[in-house]
Amino acid sequence: GEDVEQSLFLSVREGDSSVINCTYTDSSSTYLYWYKQEPGAGLQLLTYIFSNMDMKQDQRLTVLLNKKDKHLSLRIADTQTGDSAIYFCAESLGYSTLTFGKGTMLLVSP
Amino acid sequence: DGGITQSPKYLFRKEGQNVTLSCEQNLNHDAMYWYRQDPGQGLRLIYYSQIVNDFQKGDIAEGYSVSREKKESFPLTVTSAQKNPTAFYLCASSTSSLVRDEQFFGPGTRLTVL
User: What is d(CA B83, CA B78) in angstroms, rounded to the nearest whole number?
Assistant: First the structure.
């Protein structure tokens, strides 16, 4: 079955890099996504990576995919207090349903 | 502005009452979804619809019902059969493309049953 696992909490200081990790179980996944949720709000798509890629960079965000280990990570460079939120990784098999992890709460302190 | 709207933002109901949550999108997306979010539980799929007049149960459909009479609208009814309805409900939509199927989310409705 499908399952997506994430650590629940990460605390960093402003200006440091943050790395949020995710493992998934379904090797058939076509796309993997990172979403951000601010308090009391919906989810906002941050970035995605296709399963045949190893890395994708988008401004301060770097996504690394290790398909052999089914491990996905999101690195946020120069983390700001506005980055404090819950981050969800999600996997897709390409049939329009996503399986989400339980989310990692990122707390950025000044 | 294209997007997904959910109303109301906060909803209070007495135990035993049915309640309907609204979700509207003007993105011309074929697929729409309802999720429930509880603290520390992530998102769990309630129902989804890939096309008008068709919908499928997700992982936790018991106690919920939906309809999809129009492409733009996918209302969710929380019935009195749902044992623990207090939660944050999120609606999403996607193009239903088999190539890439990122979902766009509404702002959510927080339902509290008293």
Answer: 10
